[in-house]
Each structure stands twice: as structure tokens, then as C-alpha cells.
Design goal:
The chain is mainly α and 114 residues long. 98% of the residues lie in helices and 0% in strands. The longest helix has 112 residues.
Length: 114
């Protein structure tokens, strides 16, 4: 009878050690999963920060590019307007020149016909 109780007690202790070892293994597994989860969240936050920084840099670069484009467009418009003004001045000069040349030719013709 004593041996039966000892065997029963030994099985009981053996079962509890198995249950305890499985419990400890589960606790360690949950701990590892939580550590991995925390690291993943940190990496996700880090990636979000890097993405936000890149977006900010892209916006700054786009603003600079837009400003340069606006400056180039403004200079082109100014040069175009100056070219138009010079063309008008030259045309006015040609018209004035032709007008006076025509007037002189008329005077010469009048003098020849007298």
C-alpha cells in the first residue's frame, strides 16, 4: 500500500512538473512574443518618422522647384516683353525712316519737276 501511495505521489509530482514546465514555457513564449511585438511597433514608428521626414524634404524640394520655375517663367516673360518692345521700336524706326525717305523722295521729285 505504501508503494501505491509513493507511485501515486511520484506520478502526481511528475505531472505537476510537466504542467509547471509547460506553464513556464508558455510564459517565456508570451514574453518573447511581447518583445517581438514591441520591437515591431518601434520599427513601425521609426519607419513612419522616416516617411514623414522624406515627405517634408520632398515638399521643401517641390516648393524650391516651383519657386525656380516661377522665377524662370517671370524672367522669360520679361525677356519676351522686352523683345516685343524692341521689335516695336525697330518697326517704328523703319516706319519713320520710310516716311521720311518717302517725303524726301517727294521733295526731290518736286525739285526735278520744276
Amino acid at each position: 500500500m505504501q508503494e501505491g501511495k509513493l507511485d501515486k505521489a511520484a506520478r502526481f509530482v511528475d505531472n505537476w512538473w510537466k504542467i509547471l514546465s509547460v506553464g513556464i514555457a508558455m510564459i517565456l513564449l508570451i514574453y518573447q512574443i511581447s518583445v517581438i511585438w514591441i520591437k515591431a511597433k518601434e520599427m513601425e514608428q521609426s519607419l513612419d518618422n522616416m516617411k514623414n521626414e522624406m515627405d517634408t524634404q520632398n515638399e521643401i524640394r517641390d516648393e524650391k522647384s516651383d519657386k525656380r520655375h516661377d522665377d524662370i517663367t517671370r524672367m522669360y516673360d520679361e525677356l519676351t516683353m522686352r523683345g516685343i518692345e524692341l521689335t516695336r521700336d525697330y518697326q517704328d524706326h523703319l516706319i519713320d525712316d520710310a516716311y521720311f525717305r518717302g517725303k524726301m523722295d517727294a521733295e526731290i521729285d518736286n525739285l526735278k519737276n520744276r
